[in-house]
Amino acid sequence: MDSGRNKKLVSWFIVLFLFMQVVAEASLHNFIGLEDDKEGNATPADGFSRRPIINCNFACARRCMKASRKNVCARACGTCCIKCQCVPAGTSGNKTMCPCYANLRTHGLKPKCP
Predict the structure, then answer these.
(1) Which end of the chain has the least Cβ crowding within 10 Å, N or C?
(2) Signal peptide location in the record (predicted)?
(3) For the chain, what are the domain ranges?
């Protein structure tokens, strides 16, 4: 008799735990502003997709590989990469691939990003 009561109690705790997990996940989705699309994937509520986080050290090392002043190039590129989460392909040019990167300027209104 006592064994049946323990099983029932454990079952209720499991159901309660699962219910609390569902509620917590739903409130987390609402807190960070996600909505589910038709396929059930979470997307930002504002409808814009977010760029994935990239490895700025690797991307800037590739971008600055042929620069004459690699450290200066890597420092400027790193700042731009962190802000824009984008580094154009190749060692120069191609800035149309990343408008944020292309539009950053220094205090003297010169292009900031290599």
Answers:
(1) N
(2) 1-24
(3) 2-44, 56-103
